Amino acid sequence: MFKLAKTTACIAVGIFSFSSVFAADDFYEEIPMVTGVSNFPQKISLAPSAVSIITKEMIRAAGVVNVHDIFRMVPGFDAFNYSGSFGGVSYGNYPSNYPNNLEIKLDGLSIYEVFLNTTNWNSLGIDVEDIEYIEVVRGANAAVDGANSFTGSINIVTTSPLEKTHDVIRARVGSHSEQDVTLQLNGFNATTAYEVTLKNRQHDGFADFEGQPVNDALDSQSARIRAIFAPTLQDSFDLQFGYADSDIGMTAGGKEDTADETERYTMVSSYVSATWRRERGTSQYQFRLYRTENSVEYFNYLGPFSQVVGLPPQVFYDDFPYADFDVVLDTRDQSSHRLDAEFRHYFTPHENAKLSWGLGARHDQATSYLFFTSDEPVTEHTARAFLNTEWSWQGLTANFGSSYETTNIDGHALSLRFSANYPVGEHTTLRFARNNVERGPSLMQANEFRTLGYEGYVFDISRLSAEDISNESSR
């Protein structure tokens, strides 16, 4: 819709090292093992789905500034800006502000916003310099990551505090009043390592479009704390906390939105996560508990009701319900939160076999009078189970994955995946794969009841979820 030209200068103080000469193999060398496809380590050539690995060396070579721009390097992915302060990533469909079929995780933690089914990249509290690598599963990964991974999944892995020994200050300035300052404080002792990151970013967004100012400036502050505690050689605890307050400008997400339809939104998000891991021989146990909260504030005066519906003011009386009145879109009551618990177990029952399984439960809740025409919260309860196996015999590797989810909204969803991989050369592998994926409607899709009304009187229905809404399926 718009084009953004930006000149940027960056100053960094900290622990960074660069080789004087790079070859192509330094950036595109094959990563031998991946973990995000089946919940256990496996060779990338033997994974049941197509996987792209983006290393920190590739990110440095690309010279990107925004995290979501990194995915321009992944085949089939779209990275875009709907405004100067709001970016997006999509795969396999038309680019959308609110993609509801691509799971996005930060260090294994889902950062999907419950209400809008999207990710506010400004809320992550990280810079591209903090990323160790990214695993991108291209294609449905519901057998591991659940319904949101209907077309693919992304896991952004940041550098562990165990590997950081210096405090860092990064500052970047550029055109359009770009100001980006990050402060990182690190510390460690015999059993604990921690990192505290404070970040502030501001810029003016896109330049005027055809003489029309674009109200899409960004003003974002965030804080992120991560601590790793290892009381024994077998046990470790990973504790994370994040908070972000972003004042951004963006459109409602329509294909025909124009510059003058860009409005101001305030998004506040936070998360807290605790993960316990135990390594015992060839087995790994993991239990994760996390909570996320999000709120969106948006205020837009549309004008008198007569103007909105296209009627002359003279048809209205002075007294309600026939009086003319002001129409305002106000989302200051809009909020959501998620509470999620999950247990995973990985082990090798045989030298040629691997197996992982897990159980999880989730509670989602959202409140919005604008979208539900009610002050009552809308809730969704989800329970899930998953199983993934790998078996090798005389060069042939077979993978099987399955997941089952049940919710109080749409009943249940069963997803299955099978693949067989066989190497036919040093750098060539033949893969046969079949997916049967199901996903239920999101909390918003199943409960939306958006109306135009005033003090209990409903004059028009803008959007209404279908009563017979059912699961989506893909093969």
The spatial strand order of the largest sheet comes to: 1-11-12-13-14-15-16-17-20-21-22-23-24-25-28
Residue ranges: pLDDT <50 for 5 or more in a row?
1-29
Number of strands: 28
Overall mean pLDDT stands at: 81
Secondary-structure-derived class: mainly beta
Helix content: under 10%
| Biggest beta sheet attributes | 15 strands, antiparallel
- Beta-strand portion reads over 45%
Secondary structure tally, helices = 6
Termini Cα gap: 33 Å
Given the C-alpha coordinates, what overall shape results?
Answer: globular
Radius of gyration: 24 Å
Word description of this protein:
The chain contains six helices and 28 strands. It has helices at 24-28, 56-62, 142-145, 305-309, 369-372, 443-447, and strands at 8-13, 33-34, 42-43, 50-55, 77-83, 86-91, 102-106, 109-110, 131-138, 152-158, 168-174, 178-188, 192-203, 218-229, 235-250, 263-280, 283-297, 299-304, 326-330, 334-350, 353-367, 378-393, 396-407, 411-423, 429-439, 449-454, 457-464, 472-474. The protein has a 15-stranded antiparallel beta sheet. The chain is mainly beta. The relative contact order is 0.12.
Topology readout:
Elements: E1 8-13, H1 24-28, E2 33-34, E3 42-43, E4 50-55, H2 56-62, E5 77-83, E6 86-91, E7 102-106, E8 109-110, E9 131-138, H3 142-145, E10 152-158, E11 168-174, E12 178-188, E13 192-203, E14 218-229, E15 235-250, E16 263-280, E17 283-297, E18 299-304, H4 305-309, E19 326-330, E20 334-350, E21 353-367, H5 369-372, E22 378-393, E23 396-407, E24 411-423, E25 429-439, H6 443-447, E26 449-454, E27 457-464, E28 472-474
Parallel strand pairs: 7-10
Antiparallel strand pairs: 1-11, 2-3, 4-9, 5-6, 7-8, 9-10, 11-12, 12-13, 13-14, 14-15, 15-16, 16-17, 17-20, 18-19, 20-21, 21-22, 22-23, 23-24, 24-25, 25-28, 26-27
